């Protein structure tokens, strides 16, 4: 008998090809999807149980998830994380994915994104704050940009006629262009409007951290957060869960529990950027203790399909601007 050491690899490749054909053919797709769901459910049922950091039930299953190619074209990094998925409230506790932003010593070293406001470009935090201000319908407002990072949207917000003062809060102080509040400490005072763009997914202890964040909101005020919401499906293909520092991946149910635990009402809205590079899971979380504010929120969206945000193609626009700047710099160098 000959020793064909490549036979197992060929059989594995053949099996993968057969499964791929099964998913692609309309006549067999539903059967293959059903089998895949059954196997995922079996894996969940066999995983060890832990206590959920949001709802407190012993219903969190520890899953070993290796990043695969995402539906939005993201690469398959092969990175593996142990995620705790609650079968009661749907929260995904991703505590291994820690990234300490306090390690940055210069503002320029912080990540730059298409959503971030600059001196010349209004970013997502501006649009979130302007929406909240319109909903409140009041003047002489104080606004807090929580987790401002390198965004200069505080200047654009300060230019709005309804705004009296804008402060920024963060885990470290790297700038002096606005009143700074240490986000690591309890709120020294409260604000009518608080915006937190791509912040809450970095919470390690959601119950404690949400309570601390809501402590910055004055009675009858409004908090607007931007994040992705987990709606089920294969975590391996959801790039958001693997981005550095994303330790909490909320479901709509887990966010509702956190709001209720703090005496807040919750409204979920889809921002315009979700139709583009932000991805379909992007949501604004709108929270207030005031029934009147939530009624005003409903009225605001009675004539709007999407919440305001940066352009759905802001990432492409930023990339093009960078190419133009690089070309101009290269031309100057060559001319010199």
Largest sheet: 7 strands, mixed
- For the CA atoms, what is the radius of gyration? 23 Å
CATH class category of the domain at 111-229 and 261-316: Alpha Beta
Mean pLDDT comes to 89
Q: Which superfamily, in CATH terms, is the homologous superfamily of the domain at 111-229 and 261-316?
A: Vaccinia Virus protein VP39
Question: How are the secondary structure elements laid out?
Answer:
Layout: H1 7-24, H2 26-46, E1 49-50, E2 60-66, E3 80-86, E4 92-93, H3 124-136, E5 141-146, H4 153-158, E6 163-170, E7 179-182, E8 191-197, H5 206-214, E9 217-228, E10 248-249, H6 252-261, E11 265-269, E12 282-288, H7 291-300, H8 314-335
Helix pairs in contact: 1-2
Describe this structure in a few short sentences:
The protein is an alpha/beta fold. It is 32% helix and 21% strand.
3D architecture notes:
- It is built from eight helices and twelve strands.
- The protein has a domain of 175 residues: Vaccinia Virus protein VP39 (Rossmann fold, 3-Layer(aba) Sandwich).
- The protein has a seven-stranded mixed sheet with strand order 7-6-5-8-9-12-11, sandwiched between helices. A five-stranded antiparallel sheet has the order 1-2-3-4-10, with helices on one face.
- By secondary structure, it is of the alpha/beta class.
- The chain is globular, with a radius of gyration of 23 Å.
């Amino acid at each position: 008998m000959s020793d064909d050491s490549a036979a197992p690899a060929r059989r594995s490749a053949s099996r993968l090809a057969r499964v791929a054909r099964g998913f692609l053919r309309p006549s067999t797709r539903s059967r293959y999807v059903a089998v895949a769901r059954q196997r995922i459910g079996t894996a969940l049922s066999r995983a060890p149980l832990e206590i959920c950091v949001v709802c407190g039930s012993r219903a969190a299953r520890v899953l070993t998830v290796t990043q695969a190619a995402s539906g939005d074209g993201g690469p398959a990094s092969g990175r593996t994380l142990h995620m705790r998925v609650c079968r009661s409230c749907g929260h995904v506790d991703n505590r291994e994915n820690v990234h300490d932003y306090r390690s940055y010593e210069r503002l320029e070293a912080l990540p730059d994104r298409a959503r971030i406001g600059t001196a010349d470009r209004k970013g997502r935090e501006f649009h979130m704050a302007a929406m909240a201000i319109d909903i409140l319908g009041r003047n002489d407002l104080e606004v807090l940009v929580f987790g401002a990072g390198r965004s200069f949207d505080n200047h654009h917000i300060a230019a709005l006629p309804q705004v009296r003062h804008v402060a920024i809060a963060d885990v470290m102080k790297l700038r002096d262009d606005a009143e700074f509040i240490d986000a690591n400490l309890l709120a020294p005072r409260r604000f009518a409007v608080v915006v937190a763009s791509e912040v809450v997914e970095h919470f390690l202890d959601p119950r404690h951290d949400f309570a601390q964040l809501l402590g910055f909101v004055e009675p009858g005020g409004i908090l607007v957060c931007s994040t992705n919401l987990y709606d089920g499906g294969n975590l391996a293909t959801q790039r958001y869960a693997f981005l550095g520092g994303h330790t909490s991946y909320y479901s709509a149910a887990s966010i509702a529990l956190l709001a209720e635990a703090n005496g807040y009402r919750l409204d979920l809205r889809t921002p315009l950027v979700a139709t583009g590079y932000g991805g379909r899971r992007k949501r604004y979380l709108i929270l207030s203790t005031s029934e009147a504010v939530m009624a005003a929120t409903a009225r605001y969206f009675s004539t709007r399909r999407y919440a305001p945000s940066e352009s759905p193609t802001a990432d492409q626009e930023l990339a093009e601007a960078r190419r133009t700047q690089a070309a101009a710099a290269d031309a100057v160098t060559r001319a010199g």
